[in-house]
Amino acid sequence: MSAVAQKAVSKFLEFIDADIAAYAESCVHCGECAEACHFYLATKDPKYTPTYKLFPLVKAYKRHKAPLSGLKKMLGLVPAEVTEDELREWEPLVYDACTMCGRCTLVCPMGIDIAGTIRKMREGFVAAGIVPEGLSVAAANAERTGSPMGVTLKALSAQIVRQEKETGIKIEIDKKGADYMAILSSMEIMGYPEIIGAYAKLFKQAGVSWTISSEAFEATNVGVQIGDGKMAKMLVQRIVDAAEKLKVKHVISPECGHAYGALRWAGPNMVGKEFSFKVVHIIELLDQLRREGRIPAGEKDGRRMTLHDPCQLIRRGGLLQEPRTLLDDSCSDFIEMEGAGIANLCCGGGGGVSANERARELQMAAFAQKLKQINDLGDIDAVVVPCANCRTVFEDGLDEFEVDLEVVGLGELVAETLASK
Amino acid sequence: MSFLQIVEGPLFYIAAAIFLIGAIWRVIGIIKIGHKRDLAPPKGSGKVGFVAGNLRHFLPRKIFAKRTWVHIIAGYSFHFGLFALLLFAAPHIDFARDRILGFDWPALPRWGFIIAAQFAFAGLIMLWVRRFSDPVMRLISDWDDHIGSWLTFLVMLTGCLALQESHNALKAIHMLFVDVWLIYFPFSRLMHAGTFFLSRGYTGATYGRKGMTL
């Protein structure tokens, strides 16, 4: 086995726990997962069958780690070693053709978590140095600045000043002892900075004490997307250190799908300890404040709207009801798309796919599936997308297909429809 | 000792021992790999999620059912038919009473056997035909999938031929395939019958800890 393949296989084996072993042992190759995958649905190419994307990892498991593999090896019944060529052949399947959306798990008769397994499989590809260029650039930016887009504190400060002027509300940086520390995604800071103003407006009305750290304001965890555990840990640790330094009780995860999972569910496991603060998603917090009567709803937005379910928040994050409750209060003409909720289609650009220029054609083909789902609803004025990455994918896709549809963030919508005091 | 006596005597007991020890070894081996303790504060119960995951995946989701109905029908048809035959065919109950358990239970009437066999054969054949006719299944299937299907088919076919128990040779052939099937089982993908609860359960537990309803 080549040194490159050896590095990947060693990492695969390191990450194969009882869960992945059970998945590898239970897959009966029924292929039903293909029918849930937006990349297969868009292309009808069998190579996009989700379980097929796992083949090199399963081969390594069956040869080296599976119970009875020693006996089977003596009888010549184990698969051949994974080769470097094979890894290079699979790399586009693992990075371009999987957004780690987890829809395939829902259709799988064995309940196999293919998305979670792909996440761990990517660790092997990173160890072997076989990763797409677009993601490597994002990773290098994150290593340098903490942000995949290279967003600096100076850029954030400029956006904060602008939002302070817009809202007339002072936004305090590095406020020690605040109850909440907000983190933001690069996409939000550069593309949708009005969310900062929305936070200021909502939290002022609710009487929430909050701040933004100058040392850890970035929520995006490119380490999780690319599959680099070391980097993922470093990015989480940065947030933990800042939260502990400011002695906050909560960290608010923004409208960004994978950032929530990376911090809320994987974060403590990455840094190896329970956090001294709670991680709360902005949608969870707004729902809580609404229920407590601290941000009462005012006049509803009359536009006909639908909701896109970001996979990492809804299907893999458990925040199914909260955005719907907030939307019911904020929108007078809210309509659900077919398959809404836990089984909704992915936008096609999560899991680092949108940062991977090579995957653009495939991503657009997948987005066309999403667009069809929305078009099937008839006349829609706006789609609410509570994830900055999905939002960028939507805006890019709508532009590509020349569709006139407004894309709205949920936090901004809640702020805009807030009852005036 | 006749051929029949060998295949339903010592060879059967050896095959059954390999089946049991191998299958248990493999399930315990998976569990023993273990996983790290989850340090993220849970929103719900992992144990409840484990059970919920196991139950939920028995039921197809409407949104996918219209695309996967062939598999759902064939899969349930084959598995229900097979278990009905395995557990309630009169010769199987007699064999279990005389050679293993010492007690018996009501058997399927002859018409029930025939219906169960038809469901099992129809399901298995549909699933196997899809292995080479459907481009997705053709790509992902390997020799293990085909051998498992064929062995199961031959066990069922020879079982039907031996139903009258009029010829010892037919019964012996059936028992020979049963023995081969038992020996093959723990080394093959047929083991999904013993590992599916872990696969569904582990995912269900993860979802459960996140407070999610599958």
Identify the biggest protein-protein contact and residues per side: A-B, 59 and 61 residues
> What is the molecular shape of chain A?
globular
Question: Helix/strand-derived class of chain B?
Answer: mainly alpha
Average pLDDT across residues of chain A? 94
Proportion of residues in β-strands of chain B = under 5%
What is the strand tally of chain A?
8
Radius of gyration of chain B: 20 Å
Please describe the biggest sheet of chain A, giving its number of strands, its sense, and whether it closes into a barrel. 4 strands, parallel
Instruction: Please state the second-level CATH architecture of the largest domain in chain A.
Output: 3-Layer(aba) Sandwich
SSE-based structural type of chain A: alpha/beta
Query: Counting H and I runs of at least 4 residues, what is the number of helices of chain A?
Result: 22
Radius of gyration of chain A (CA) equals 22 Å
Taken as a percent bin, the fraction of beta residues of chain A is 5-15%
Q: Kindly report the average pLDDT value of chain B.
A: 94
